[in-house]
Task: inverse folding
């Protein structure tokens, strides 16, 4: 039979301060742990939202990101000959050859930062229906006009409607804002592709080519046709969503590794804190342990009572840390995405697996911190323990 | 010796301090009859508490056997010994040893958690025990809300709640004023005469020892 749980719970109350300090230490570590995971997940989520599952993006195989990819006009034309490319009502293929340029812009919070300017075809709004003009209008073909994503409007100076931004040796008027459902496009300028190529002397080719599949399930058929085309061997087609997800991997992996490394070091501190608390708890209750053992409670009951106490403290701390971290969902951050060399705005995002990982992490700290003190309590000789009073 | 409930047979006990053997009990043999109230007296360090601990199964002799109720408890492994204690021994300590975070009721209930009694049965037993010691109206008090004498009564209620074979009391009046000590001794005497409990009590208080039916004196680990 176990030592009653109320014995454990009430002992917290009898030493409020040490319990609160230990809980706070663990809560802080779990907060940082969860925040880092939420950050990395937020980036992934943003990038996943960027792509559609029925769009295919073609980039150069060796390219690290869109910026370093080139698809020359001849290859573009070859791609258009392949099957399974959806057609618009007018019979033209639903395709957008896009040029991606990185420009410098002044942040509201100070300092210059990189922003992606994406030259797109007019078909892009059919291709990516999640992108909606919310204010103003779309750029006109043949005009030096840009539309700005929701995050650009928020984070950069001079990104107001009617203002001009300078890049490519010319000035461009902001004629509209678009929203892309919190995806990576929200952190971009979109312009008419011909204008962008003209300004940067890039008429020879695109960075990437994106098109809609005629059927969401026809990707493998398209890929087979693509791979059979000898002129396209240096390119690789990917589902757009997968492409952007991979673009987030280096940044989210970096954050995960750095963050987990830091929290593991923090966790040593919190675990030692829990251990000291539990050693003190055992030392203060040696006579009680002796009494319980004399009454007939077994060593393992004493062990589990003290271990439960440590686990309860750490789980409580973990829940508080997680609760605080969950409030981060209301905040968003901008960071340089390594793959695109441009700013990406994203929100902290919580997932069930982050909740579970955080709780397991606090459970681990509780067990690691409580085990040795609990063993000490369980190993006490009854006679010695009773005499300690 | 058919009605002997405790047989201490040629028991010796020594402790090791570093590499030095310190003898505490030297070849002790005692028989305690059922329903007896035995007092163990002697100066500090005479080994009386050690002998009590051996009888109660919370310590093991270096040599010899301790047979309680027909069971040689020196042969039991630790787990079985713990189970045996919970069924056969009621402890009364000098400093009461109540758990401060539990109420009188919960303290008395503790030994019953090791039995298979239902919650309702446990409640009945606890209330009965607290009534016997005269604290039926203090069941929800915490130890710190009770006087020393009342705490010791709760401890006695805890000791008798499982209806054990044997009550062991180590200086039960050692921390009490004269009046409370008297009340505790009257209570123990009543448990012995009225409820036929076998009691082994260590004390160096001659007034307490007066209540015992048989008194053994120990000196330097030997019966004198």
Result:
């Amino acid at each position: 039979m176990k030592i009653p749980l109320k014995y454990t719970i009430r002992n917290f109350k009898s030493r409020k301060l040490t319990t609160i300090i230990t809980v706070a230490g663990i809560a802080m570590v779990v907060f940082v742990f969860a925040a880092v995971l939420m950050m990395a997940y937020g980036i992934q989520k943003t990038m996943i939202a960027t792509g559609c599952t029925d769009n295919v993006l073609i980039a150069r195989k060796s390219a690290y990101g869109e910026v370093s990819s080139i698809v020359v006009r001849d290859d573009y034309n070859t791609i258009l000959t392949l099957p399974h490319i959806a057609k618009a009502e007018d019979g033209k293929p639903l395709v957008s050859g896009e040029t991606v340029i990185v420009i410098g812009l002044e942040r509201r919070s100070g300092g210059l930062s990189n922003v992606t300017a994406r030259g797109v075809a007019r078909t892009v709004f059919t291709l990516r229906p999640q992108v909606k003009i919310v204010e103003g209008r779309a750029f006109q073909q043949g005009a030096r006009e840009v539309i700005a994503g929701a995050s650009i409007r928020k984070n950069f100076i001079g990104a107001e409607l009617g203002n001009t931004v300078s890049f490519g040796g010319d000035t461009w008027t902001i004629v509209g804002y678009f929203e892309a459902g919190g995806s990576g496009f929200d952190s971009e300028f979109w312009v008419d592709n011909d204008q962008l190529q003209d300004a940067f002397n890039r008429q020879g080719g695109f960075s990437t080519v994106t098109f809609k599949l005629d059927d969401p399930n026809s990707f493998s058929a398209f890929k087979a046709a693509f791979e059979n085309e000898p002129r396209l061997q240096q390119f690789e087609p990917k589902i757009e969503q997968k492409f952007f997800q991979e673009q987030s991997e280096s940044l989210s992996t970096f954050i995960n590794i750095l963050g987990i490394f830091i929290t593991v070091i923090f966790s040593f501190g919190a675990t030692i804190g829990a251990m000291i608390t539990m050693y003190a708890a055992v030392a203060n209750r040696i006579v009680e342990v002796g009494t319980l053992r004399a009454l007939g409670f077994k060593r393992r009951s004493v062990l589990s009572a003290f271990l439960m106490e440590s686990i309860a403290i750490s789980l409580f701390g973990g829940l508080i840390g997680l609760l605080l971290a969950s409030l981060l969902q209301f905040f968003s951050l901008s960071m340089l995405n390594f793959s695109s060399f441009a700013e990406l705005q994203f929100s902290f995002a919580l997932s069930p697996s982050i909740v579970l990982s955080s709780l397991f992490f606090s459970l681990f700290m509780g067990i690691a911190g409580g085990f040795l003190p609990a063993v000490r309590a369980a190993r006490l000789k009854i006679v010695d323990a009773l005499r300690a009073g | 010796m058919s009605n002997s409930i405790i047989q201490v047979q040629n028991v010796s006990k020594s402790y090791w301090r570093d590499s030095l053997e310190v003898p505490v009990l030297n070849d002790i043999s005692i028989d305690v009859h059922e329903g007896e109230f035995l007092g163990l007296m002697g100066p500090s360090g005479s080994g009386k508490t050690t002998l009590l601990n051996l009888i109660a199964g919370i310590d093991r002799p270096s040599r010899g056997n301790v047979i309680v109720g027909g069971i040689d408890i020196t042969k039991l492994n630790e787990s079985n010994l713990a189970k045996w204690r919970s069924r056969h021994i009621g402890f009364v300590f000098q400093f009461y040893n109540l758990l401060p975070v539990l109420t009188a009721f919960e303290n008395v209930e503790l030994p019953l958690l090791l039995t298979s009694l239902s919650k309702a049965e446990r409640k009945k037993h606890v209330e009965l025990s607290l009534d016997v010691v005269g604290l039926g109206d203090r069941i929800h008090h915490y130890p710190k809300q009770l006087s020393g004498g009342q705490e010791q009564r709760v401890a006695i209620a805890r000791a008798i709640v499982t209806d054990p074979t044997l009550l062991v009391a180590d200086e039960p009046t050692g921390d009490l004023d004269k009046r409370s000590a008297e009340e505790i001794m009257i209570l123990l005497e009543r448990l012995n005469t009225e409820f036929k409990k076998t009691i082994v009590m260590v004390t160096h208080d001659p007034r307490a020892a007066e209540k015992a039916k048989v008194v053994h004196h120990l000196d330097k680990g030997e019966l004198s």
Q: What stands out?
A: Chain B has one domain: 4-223.
